Amino acid sequence: MTSRPSSRAPLSTTAHEAPARAWALVLLVIVLLAWEAAARWQDWSALVLPAPSVVGGALWRGLASGYFWPHLWQTTLEVLLGLAVGGTLGFALGLLLAESAFLHRLAMPYVVASQVVPKLALAPLMTVWLGFGTAPMVAITALVCFFPLLENTLTGIGQTDPDRRELFRMLGATRWQTLWRLKVRSGLPAILAGLRMAVVLALVGAVVGEFIGASRGLGALIIAAQGSMDTPLMFAVLVLITVLGLVLYGATTALQRWLLRSYTRSLPGDPAP
Question: How many domains does the chain have?
Fold first, then answer.
């Protein structure tokens, strides 16, 4: 039986990551300082490209006054709900299609067709069908999150070691036991990679949906700032979107590390320590 690299390999940050992150922060500071200097030296209009200090002032005023918080909460809620709905459906359908070649051939053309349609074009329809508010934004976000989980689940399940599957068959494991105790555990890295992609796309889907039919949310706030020609406010909202995306991505990465440590620690068939 072929051996697999031990699942006990350390997943903590390497010694090279901390210096890289420090240099990334230094690079960000350099870019901001150069931007600030250029804006002052060239006397750029804040309407066209505001200096970082102007953007920082707009960001601070919005946070301190509480103006940003309802919009930030609304977008976060849409992202989390859409990710939960779309991710769960994608994972479940991925398992189903991975276990049935007939259903895979039957459903995949329709799944792919649903993904090639631009989600921005679906936003007005979602508003017509579901009305204004949170529901259509969650639906759009779920559509965006659905495919990465589906595709990566199919990929992860399909990469299960044939020798391990044979071992489970010889031990008399049921199909359900083989799926959950072997295939899902073996495919977990690919599935979690799909989750990381889905988190990023979820934020994009929520904000894009808010461009079309929302009165609250960071996307709606960008449209309002555009209408009032408030470019510093637009940049401040973009900073909020970026920070929110980084926080969600970081939380997903931490979840991935924890799951890979605990859930794949001792796959059946691993050599004894």
Answer: 1
pTM: 0.83
Where do we find the tokens 């709606």?
220
| CATH number reported for the structural domain that contains residue 81 in this entry | 1.10.3720.10
- 8: pLDDT strictly greater than 70: no
Burial class of 1 by CB neighbour count within 10 A (0 to 12, 13 to 18, 19+):
exposed
Residue 131 domain-assigned (yes or no) = yes
φ, ψ of residue 179 to 5 degrees: the values are: -65, -50
Comparison of pLDDT for 212 and 2, the residue scoring more: 212
